[in-house]
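Researcher: Hi, I'm a grad student and pretty new to this. My advisor asked me to get structures for two proteins we've been looking at. I'm not sure of the right format, so I'll just paste the first sequence and hope you can take it from there.
Model: That works fine. Here's the first sequence with its structure tokens right after it:
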Amino acid sequence: MDGADLWLHVSTSSGVPIYVQLKDQLRRAIQGGTLRPGDQLPTVRDLAARTVVNPNTVARVYRELEAEGFLTTQRGVGTYVAPNPSWRLDELARQDAAMAAADAFLAALSQLGMSPAEGAELLLERGRPPKDGAGNRAVSDKAGGKHGRKGAREDEQDG
């Protein structure tokens, strides 16, 4: 997979800053092996357009991931996953990280008064590439490059 096939989800109503969401998703894709050393990421402008966020936000994410050793940038050429695999998670660490994420998700569901079964349904739905006009701000080139987006006013009304 290269960066052009990234599927990222950004939620304006989650309470988590958008740059943190993007950074965490890219870091996990690199650590988990979805993005491999040498893979080229979309340009700042392209990723900003596909996620419907400010280009400065994407540039910040790329700068911070480069400072952490996850990315390398070749001026005028592009941004790539760094060649050093030392930060890759081994299988046990991946499972531990996934379990921690699952525990946090279950705790959030409980606070919302939802059952684990309802959460599982949400995860299955969220894991599918969005349909055109589905109301999600997501990136999926595999879904034909069509991306739904909720406007800020709609997000405020929902949450």
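Researcher: Oh nice, that was easy. Here's the second one.
Model: And its structure:
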Amino acid sequence: MLTRFVTSVILILFSSVFLLGLVSDSARAAELKTVDGHVADGGGTPLVGANVTVNMRKPMPDNSIRSTMWYDATDSSGLYVVTFGGMGGADWVAGDTIEIIVTKGTSVTKTVTCTADDQTIDVLWPYVIPEFGSATGLVVAAGAVCVLGLLLASRKKK
């Protein structure tokens, strides 16, 4: 009878430890916050290679930076992804202001209010960024140089 009691107690203890481990793992996962989005120019073309800085700012009137994550270069679709940890004061708190700064030559800033869930925040560059190096651009530039050269060559010396 005593052996059965000890076995039951040990089984309950191991079950409790196992369940506490599962709860703590899910609590840690709940503390993570992912902020992602796409960066595009004013024409909707993905902005490739842009640097993205994401700041978590404390609510007003403090507005100081609680934590910062960086994304080195947006991919071919303009995507960036950063993950913050430590909800409850460490890296982020619901109600913080998320400040996204996109830099590619110049900077564009967008701010939104932080929620408890992961957030997708797209950033639209305020103007269209022209594509240089296209075949059409090369033909037009070469043609302009030829015309200019012919005009200068055909001028008579006085």
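Researcher: Is there anything I should tell my advisor about the second?
Model: You could mention this: The chain has two helices and eight strands.
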